[in-house]
Amino acid sequence: MTALARPTQGRMIGGVCAALARRFGTSATTMRVIFLVSCLLPGPQFLLYLALWILLPSEDKARTAW
User: Fold this and answer.
1) Using an 8 Å Cβ cutoff, are 48 and 34 in contact?
2) pLDDT tens figures, 20-35
3) Which of 11, 29, 44, 59 lies in disulfide reach of 15, CB 3.0 to 4.6 Å?
4) Can you give the residue range of the structural domain that contains 52?
């Protein structure tokens, strides 16, 4: 299993949806649609996205750490 890291290629804003899509084996577009639909529901989805953007390392930094 690969470490969860934001990819350097194919990311839109922060790469969080692309990283989650890679981890769960789905397309980045599907994950982005799921995120956008979830933002219509009450909850801290946007704050969770920001937290993951800050906490998840970029793929190039994660590669040098191993």
Assistant:
1) no
2) 999 999 999 999 999 9
3) 11
4) 16-56
